[in-house]
Design a protein that fits this description.
By secondary structure, the protein is α/β, with parallel strands linked by helices. The protein folds into 2 domains: 89 residues, Orthogonal Bundle (Arc Repressor Mutant, subunit A); 209 residues, D-Maltodextrin-Binding Protein, domain 2 (3-Layer(aba) Sandwich). It is built from 13 helices and 11 strands. The strands form 3 sheets. Strands 3, 4, 5, 6, 9, 10 and 11 form a 7-stranded mixed β-sheet that branches. A hairpin with a 5-residue loop joins strand 1 and strand 2. The longest helix is centred in the first third of the chain and has 23 residues.
């Protein structure tokens, strides 16, 4: 049985864009054309491939077809590049990649710049919590991901990048107001804390070391921006686990201070990507590894 490339491309677009309408815009066709292609594909394989939810999600069988579509598009791009047939004004390959928020704010853009120097492909970067980027890899939404998952996703290659260091930090005034008597269950329970979103568990992991059996229910500022974390910390709104790469200068100047000695956490990071014999993916992996060597604290044995 052969799969129609236009049909599998339509499925990949629906999953990538999150809806039939946006997939139609991306492929420059009508939404009804997308629906017809998806129905034809599902009739062809005899299985449901996409959940008609918001956003649209692949079924387990749909993930297999999406991976096939994305890998086929990537290999087609590589073949045309080797043949010298990529047109400057024509469509180029775009690699969907999931990157955790703090890596995107600190070191990953260096990887993107390195990649652009040797490839005509572009990146479709999806920002997600580092504990959840692997989910996008599993469901076929992305080709590669920066993640904390140390085990390779099925069908993927794994590269250890090292560890990103986070420092539990706040302004000196905030520290004097809330932690003058030390970091303990009482002070952590009362001091306002900055949290990125509901998936961000880093502050809670740090606090649990001191809470014992006491429930941790502090006042919370929800701030979905790593740089806003730094601004809010400087302004004394709360304490947070800030990436060392973002606050090194503030720590050196004393405008931010650690909550206590050795108030840090190291988050191991990994680069995972689908196993595909692609020059473009190899180029991206080389760029990611080079950038991470410069900007991420290396793990020690």
């Amino acid at each position: 049985m052969n799969l129609d490339y236009a049909h599998v491309r339509a499925l990949a677009a629906v999953i990538r864009e999150g809806s039939f309408d946006r997939a139609a815009q991306a492929l420059n066709v009508t939404p009804s054309a997308i629906s017809q292609r998806i129905r034809s594909l599902e009739d062809r394989v005899g299985r449901l491939l996409v959940q008609r939810t918001v956003p649209a999600l692949p079924t387990a069988d749909g993930r297999i077809v999406v991976q096939y579509a994305e890998q086929t598009a990537l290999l087609e791009h590589d073949a045309l590049a080797r043949l010298g047939m990529l047109a400057d004004d024509g469509p180029q390959a775009t690699l969907p990649v999931a990157v955790n928020h703090d890596s995107l704010e600190t070191w990953f853009m260096d990887a993107a710049i390195r990649f652009s120097a040797g490839s005509q492909a572009t990146l479709d970067l999806r920002s997600e919590d580092q504990d959840h980027t692997a989910t996008l890899l599993r469901n076929g939404t992305v080709l590669g991901a920066v993640t904390t998952l140390a085990e390779p996703v099925q069908g993927c290659r794994l590269h250890a990048l090292g560890s990103m260091r986070y420092v539990a930090s706040c302004s000196p005034e905030f520290h004097e107001r809330h932690f003058a008597e030390g970091v303990n269950a009482q002070s952590l329970g009362q001091a306002p804390v900055l949290v990125y979103n509901r998936k961000d568990a880093m502050q809670a992991r740090f606090a649990r070391k001191y809470m014992g059996k006491t429930a941790w229910q502090p006042p919370i500022w929800w701030l979905p921006s790593a740089r806003a974390f730094v601004q809010a910390s400087l302004a004394g709104l709360g304490w947070s686990m800030n990436p060392l790469a973002l606050i090194q200068q503030e720590l050196d100047k004393g405008t931010l201070v650690p909550l206590r000695a050795r108030a840090y956490e190291d988050a191991p990071l990994y680069w995972q990507h689908w196993r595909v014999n692609s020059d473009t993916m190899s180029s991206l992996t080389d760029a990611v590894l080079a950038a991470s060597r410069q900007l991420i604290r290396r793990s020690r044995p």
